[in-house]
Design goal:
Elements: E1 3-5, E2 12-14, H1 31-46, E3 51-53, H2 62-71, E4 79-84, H3 91-105, E5 110-115, H4 124-136, E6 140-146, H5 150-158, E7 167-171, H6 180-190, E8 193-197, H7 204-207, H8 212-224, H9 228-237, E9 242-244, H10 251-258, H11 267-276
Parallel strand pairs: 3-4, 4-5, 5-6, 6-7, 7-8, 8-9
Antiparallel strand pairs: 1-2
Bound molecules: NADP nicotinamide-adenine-dinucleotide phosphate.
Residues 19-21, 53, 116, 146-147, 169, 197-203, 206, 229, 245-250, 253, 256-257 line the site of NADP nicotinamide-adenine-dinucleotide phosphate.
Length: 278
């Protein structure tokens, strides 16, 4: 595995983590499916993707419960990121939401606590006060946001008095480059980690397509003897502030995704791919 510093925290995190949206079932519980999801998470941890992203919102909290099972008995060796929902951003609601996540995660600290989406009706200063209280109490180690624009990120930074904002989790892949002109540049300059979600476009990148850009991607996959998904993830994590959290329920997918790390494409190939999918 390769590691990058989380924001300005001095702490290193794996460049590839494990997404968990949809694990534990979106609308119903099923023990057999839970066992399969657990196997996939545990394989990901064995392959050193020791960074799991979840949220109180995912599967009504059941995703967090499965994460707790997956990391046992080595919780200390895994970087756990979870999120507080936008309807819980009032000061006391943040504290309550965190306590509930800690219970479901069966841990006494969260490594990275993220505001899942901005909520314009609640001042960010109120939310961040609660986040800093949680850090002071040792219940969370780092503070992040998700789906924040440059302006919202700046406001979140300014609302923190004792901590620095570690990360912003946003959609980013070869097929969605919308953060590049503004947020990516800003994060790079401010040393804020970008956690790229939906980094393989929900599996669509693996399917390829017609047209020159897909031909270029396929040339690069052949040259490095990698798959389209591996090249797409490698392209993302080659960017300085970026780490990625693909979700994979299938064991083959987990193994394949782990193979996105440990090699580098040339600068020319990286630029050619950027240009092709611009
Ligand atoms: P994703 O990771 O781009 O794609 C997941 C899909 O791709 C799954 O259907 C998976 O299938 C498939 N897949 C995985 N590896 C593959 C491979 N090697 N080849 C082909 N298909 C593959 O999308 P995502 O789940 O939306 O995003 C990842 C994570 O980001 C989420 O799980 C969540 O933790 C986070 N996220 C955060 C937000 C936010 O608002 N902060 C929003 C969306 C997502 P199998 O499961 O069958 O293997």
């Amino acid at each position: 595995m390769e590691y990058k510093e989380l924001g300005k925290s001095g702490m290193k995190i794996p460049v590839l983590g494990l997404g968990t949206w949809g694990i534990g079932g979106l609308s119903s519980r099923n023990t057999q499916r839970d066992d399969e999801d657990l196997r996939a998470l545990r394989l990901g941890l064995e392959l050193e993707m020791r960074f799991i992203d979840t949220a109180e919102m995912y599967s009504g909290g059941h995703s967090e419960e499965l994460v707790a099972k997956a990391v046992k008995p080595e919780r200390e060796k895994v970087f756990i990121a979870t999120k507080v929902s936008p309807e819980h951003l009032r000061h006391d609601d943040v504290i309550k939401a965190c306590e509930s996540s800690l219970k479901r995660l069966e841990t006494n600290y969260i490594d990275l606590y993220q505001v899942h989406w901005p909520n314009p009706s609640i001042p960010i200063s109120e939310t961040m006060k609660a986040m800093e209280h949680l850090v002071a109490e040792g219940k969370t180690r780092h503070i992040g946001v998700s789906n924040f624009s440059v302006q919202q990120t700046r406001e979140a930074q300014q609302a923190l008095s004792k901590s620095s904002l570690a990360s912003n989790q946003v959609e980013y892949s070869l097929l969605d480059r919308s953060i590049e002109p503004n947020l990516l540049t800003y994060a790079d300059k401010e040393n804020i980690t970008i956690i790229a979600y939906t980094p393989i476009a929900k599996g669509r990148i693996s399917e390829g397509g017609r047209g020159e850009r897909w031909q270029i991607l396929d040339q690069i996959t052949s040259k490095y003897n990698k798959t389209r998904t591996q090249v797409a993830l490698n392209w993302l994590i080659a960017k300085k502030p970026v780490v990625a959290i693909p979700k994979a329920g299938s064991l083959d997918h987990v193994r394949e995704n782990a193979g996105a790390v440990g090699w580098q494409m040339s600068k020319t190939d990286h630029e050619m791919l950027s240009e092709a999918f611009r």
